[in-house]
Amino acid sequence: MKLQVKICGLSLAEDVLAAADAGADAVGFVFAESPRKVAPAIAAAISQSVAGKIKRVAVMRHPSNNEWQSVLREFQPDVLQTDAEDFKMLEVPDAIECWPVFREGGPEPSATGIYLYEGRNSGRGESVDWSVAANFANDGQMILAGGLTVGNVANAIRIVRPFGVDVSSAVESQPGRKDAGLIREFIRAAHAAESVQ
């Protein structure tokens, strides 16, 4: 199966289109505290053009069920991404995919479907130990996140062999503002590495 690429932390319609045009499989919108945080109604508006074409991911961290229901109602995402333990307290319709987040140094990944593996703090470009991540990559479908760049994503893919990769800050010109050229380069580098595995 083709390596999945998620571009995260989007806040402008032109950046969403740039990710889609470059071949991204998913786009993430942050509803947790972050320089990239957007309102659910904004996320809905700027991603309308790609709805039904690529996955639109609601990225949260320890939301209350009320917070999640507000995002669900206003944004209508395809996917909810939040820490694995959060799902016990959230009411998620069957139509919404659940992508639990497991963090380096925390509980080991236990998901059978798609999940994210990243550093202790989201959105700060913190790399994980790829050799450790590689030990988990055969369990479920790991999307590797944290500290990936145009320069290192190929090496990360060769070592970890993940189901997908996730990038945010490394394809930005400034926090929350994406660079279309860097997005294209990142996706090209990721798929080039996949093809030589």
Tally of helical runs: 6
Helix content: 25-40%
Radius of gyration, CA atoms, in whole angstroms: 15 Å
- Poorly predicted regions are none
Q: Span from first to last CA?
A: 12 Å
Spatial sequence of strands, sheet with the most strands: 1-2-3-4-5-6-7-8
Query: What is the number of E strands?
Result: 10
- CATH fold title: TIM Barrel
| Series of secondary-structure elements, N-terminal to C-terminal | EHEHEHEEEHEHEEEH
CATH homologous superfamily placement: Aldolase class I
CATH architectural grouping: Alpha-Beta Barrel
- Give the integer mean of the pLDDT values: 93
- What structural class do the secondary elements suggest? alpha/beta
What is the name of the CATH class? Answer: Alpha Beta
Overall geometry comes to globular
The portion of residues forming beta strands comes to: 15-25%
- How many discrete structural domains? 1
The largest β sheet comes out as: 8 strands, parallel, barrel
3D structure, described in words:
The chain is α/β, with parallel strands linked by helices and 197 residues long. It has a single domain (4-195), classed as TIM Barrel (Alpha-Beta Barrel), CATH 3.20.20. It has helices at 13-22, 40-46, 65-75, 130-136, 153-160, 180-195; strands at 4-7, 26-30, 55-59, 79-83, 97-103, 114-118, 141-144, 164-167, 172-174, 177-178. The strands form two sheets. An eight-stranded parallel barrel has the order 1-2-3-4-5-6-7-8, surrounded by four helices. A two-stranded antiparallel ribbon has the order 9-10. Helix 1 packs parallel to helix 6 and helix 5 packs parallel to helix 6.
